[in-house]
Amino acid sequence: MENSESLILQVAIDTPLRRVFDYLAPLHAAAASAGATDGPRPQPGVRVRVPFGRSTKLGIVVALADRSALPRAKLKRAHEIIDREPLFDPVGFELLRWAADYYHHPIGEVFAAALPVALREGRAAQERTVLWELTALGLSETESPSDRRAPTQRALLAHLAVNGPRTTAECAGEFDPAIIRAVAARGWIRERPQTALPAGAALGVAPVLRSSSIELTDAQRVAVDAIVGSGTRFAVHLLHGVTGSGKTEVYLRAIAGLIGERGQALVLVPEISLTPQLVQRFRDRFDSAPAIMHSGLAAGERLDAWRRARSGEARIVIGTRSAVFAPLPRLALIVVDEEHDPSYKQHEGFRYSARDLAVARARRANVAIVLGSATPSLESLENAAQGRYVKLTLPERPGAARAARMRLVDLRRHAVDHGFSQPAIAAIATHLAAGAQVIVFQNRRGYAPTLYCAACGWVATCAHCDARLTVHRHPAVLRCHHCGAQRAPASHCEACGRDLHPVGHGTERIEETLARLFPGHAVARLDRDTVATRGAIDALLARVRCGDARILVGTQMLTKGHDFPEIGLVVILDADQGLFATDYRAAERLAQTIIQVAGRAGRGARPGEVLIQTEFPDHPLLRLLIDAGYEAFAAQALAERRAARWPPYARLALLRADAKDPARVDTFLRAAARLAPSSLLGGDRGVNVLGPANALLARRADRHRAHLLIEAGDRSALHRFLGDWLPQVENLPAPHGLRWSLDVDPLEVD
Ligand code: ADP
Ligand code: ZN
After folding, report:
1. How far is the CA of 169 from the centre of ligand 1 (A)?
2. In which band, very low, low, confident or very high, does the pLDDT at 1 lie, cut at 50, 70 and 90?
3. Is ligand 1 within 6 A of the CB of residue 216?
């Protein structure tokens, strides 16, 4: 920079605008950059405080420049550079810039999503450790004391004279903080000016994997060797291990093998609170504690984990979605557990896929990544088939445990009592009598999904959404599961005054039925209503693990990798909810759910059994899944996707819009569709813009929702199209009260 006074900072600021903002560097910083002072130097990745509109904001410097498109007189000067060192490691920083580009999302919001709140609010990136040293006055005082009073103060002086500069914490063992302050007040000691440690400078000791009695199976050994063997090269390993096959053991050994003396490992999990077992296994087996990152942490805890990752002190970081952005200057391996899990995709704001970004990060960092699952996503299977991923298979459970036997129960041929077929009731009784525990899966919380008048057909619906109200009993309310609205329970029809009936079975009702059918066997219920807090989940899972609860009923939360050895039977009450859904991914989700829930049975010495209730026992999807297994199902589902040109054989983006007035949504989306550059449209590899179409739930919380679907032959075609089109959409006059967003690689076309 020739003229340091006009050094320009390109700053990412947390606003919905897809651009960076130019500022003049603060004067002292410009001087530092020119080498004139040793203040914080502006460099990409540091935080900066800038004037923004009428307020002040924190931003991230993304680049330095010596000119701006704006005339110099219009540029404002940044107030202050906050950090001496970039917040991110170089790969993590590049990943964020790339992600903003790939998802066509405002870069300021991307950086905001990647940082703990405390850092966005200006807290220091490093814990401030104060180092105390003797002043000249203090030194002469030790040599020729002016008097003999205050012996403790003199002892502190002697201590520093002998040992050299010490931190407050190091002095604290022998000296009260009040003593330190008193000595400092006499001018005998002072804080030594600290220079910031670069990321990775405080690398923790290499964690040692404690030996265990577990001897790897052949398949596990092959997997570990392949992962460790890929060394410091980028390689994606798709670890397809059936439920209970010991994937965690593979992760542990691969990490131990790859982080060595200087490396760090990142382990992504779908939901930490639901799978305390995985974290516990890492704690038990490694001799140093992993840093844990998830959304349930208090701001200070989160910052602390972030700092430990950045300094290198934490050699293993376990976290949910946003941990993919953790600063890891010594990254050596990434593990994504349950890679198919939808919770890796952020559903609002910056809609990234942590699984996909993890692969992108591994590529940039040139390290291995393991994607583990019993039910890999179709796109990962396709990547393996294409040779882009290395497929590793754990085909069976180790030791005595065997895969559970799956059986369909035809709901049309058996008497049904409140959702339970006679064969299911008989099987539950048998397993309970044999001392086994039982899981009942129903992906619907509440008491009943519908409140219905048999006389006139009236149904209780939400006043704000196109949806029915769910009946809840404890507490007794009618609640909308889409907008949260609730009303007092009704017993008489609003239309004709006759009695109302709850129809269908939510988990609350299932729990009630189980208590009636199997008195004397304690039932535990796992859904968002029973485990609103972290502690409640732990307590409930503990009740199941210790055997207190004999029957566990729950929703999707049951699918998340729980390892309870005494579960003998799993009953899936209603497999049909997903069979006829319109979304292209519904079949994949249903198959994954069935296999994952089924995988909770028979994990110990006890043989497992799975009953799947359905009214469509001949449905080809169910048959294939039960008779031939997940892989056969996946092959079939992929063939269908290819024929219909759905992902992974096409790339999608969804432009969603919502407003109170449906006409505004429609007008906006039509105008956006008309802006599509015609040169990029159509053809086999070209782009198609479909819609506007209403969302499945066309009205939610009084807002009308619709979308345009953008479909392209491949990634680069989609990217080119969006790069051309979005800036024009941004310039459309936005109708009053309308919100819109773009979702690249949407999980659902809705
Ligand atoms: P997954 O994650 O594949 O569902 P887990 O890692 O939870 O499976 O392992 C299931 C159980 O098998 C755990 O209790 C684990 O300790 C045990 N296990 C793993 N590998 C072995 C092995 N090689 N021999 C014996 N038991 C094992
Ligand atoms: Zn509602």
Report:
1. 42
2. very low
3. yes
What whole-number distance in Å separates Cα of residue 292 and Cα of residue 742?
A: 31
Pick the closest to residue 611 from 602, 598, 622 (CA basis).
Answer: 598
Q: Is 281 in the pocket of ligand 1 (CB under 6 A)?
A: no
Distance from C-alpha of 537 to C-alpha of 693, rounded to nearest angstrom: 39
Q: Which helix (H) or strand (E) holds 423?
A: helix 422-433
Give the CA radius of gyration of the chain: 30
Residue 146, judged by CB atoms within 10 A of its CB (0-12, 13-18, 19+), counts as exposed
Query: 613: which strand partners?
Result: 409
Q: Does domain 651-744 have CATH number 3.40.50.20?
A: no
Taking the model in full, what pTM does it have? 0.91
- Using an 8 Å Cβ cutoff, are 602 and 402 in contact? yes
Is 369's pLDDT higher than 50? yes
Residue 411 DSSP code: T
Same fold flag, 405-448+504-641 and 651-744 = no
Contact 616, 690 (CB under 8 A): no
Record: fold of 405-448+504-641: Rossmann fold (3.40.50)
pLDDT for the residue 250: 98
pLDDT in tens, 581-640: 888 999 999 999 999 999 999 998 888 999 999 999 999 989 999 999 999 999 999 999
Q: Which homologous superfamily does the CATH classification assign to the domain defined by 4-120?
A: PriA, 3(prime) DNA-binding domain (3.40.1440.60)
Count CB atoms within 10 A of the CB of residue 548: 10
Report the alpha-carbon distance of residue 687 to residue 680 in Å, rounded: 6
Q: Is 247 in the pocket of ligand 1 (CB under 6 A)?
A: yes
pLDDT digits (tens, 9 = 90+) for 373-431: 999 999 999 999 999 999 999 999 998 788 889 999 999 999 999 999 999 999 999 99
**pLDDT confidence tier of residue 195, bands split at 50, 70 and 90:** low
Ligand nearest to the CA of 699: 2
* Contact between residue 217 and residue 398 where contact means Cβ atoms under 8 Å apart: yes
CATH superfamily of 218-394: P-loop containing nucleotide triphosphate hydrolases (3.40.50.300)
Can you tell me the distance from the alpha carbon of 280 to that of 24, in angstroms, rounded to the nearest whole number? 49
Ligand 1 pocket: which of 209, 214, 242, 375 to mutate (most atoms within 8 A of CB): 214
Domain range list for the chain? 4-120, 129-194, 218-394, 405-448+504-641, 651-744
Q: How far is CA 698 from CA 364, 421, 690, 693, 750, in A?
A: 41, 35, 17, 9, 10
Tokens coding 264: 């760090």
With a 6 A CB cut-off, is 241 part of the ligand 1 pocket?
yes
Mutate to test the pocket of ligand 1, among 213, 214, 249 (most ligand atoms within 8 A of CB): 249
SS3 content of the chain, % helix, strand, coil (to 5): 35, 25, 40
Q: Which residues contact 477 (CB under 8 A, 6 or more apart)?
A: 486, 487, 488, 489
Q: What region does 124 belong to: left with phi over 0, alpha with psi -120 to 50, or beta?
A: beta
Count of other CB atoms within 10 angstroms of residue 551: 25
Q: Residue 362 pLDDT more than 80? A: yes
Residue 599 CA to ligand 2 centre (angstroms): 34
- DSSP assignment of 533-588 equals SHHHHHHHHHHHHTT--SEEEESGGGGS----TTEEEEEES-GGGGTT-SSTTHHH
Q: For a substitution probing ligand 1, which of 281, 373, 545, 563 has the most ligand atoms within 8 Å of its CB? A: 563
Q: What contacts 24+ positions apart, CB below 8 Å, involve 191-195?
A: 191/130, 191/131, 191/132, 191/133, 192/131, 192/132, 192/133, 192/165, 194/128, 194/129, 194/130, 194/131, 195/84
What distance in Å separates the CA atoms of residue 109 and residue 59, rounded to the nearest whole number?
A: 10
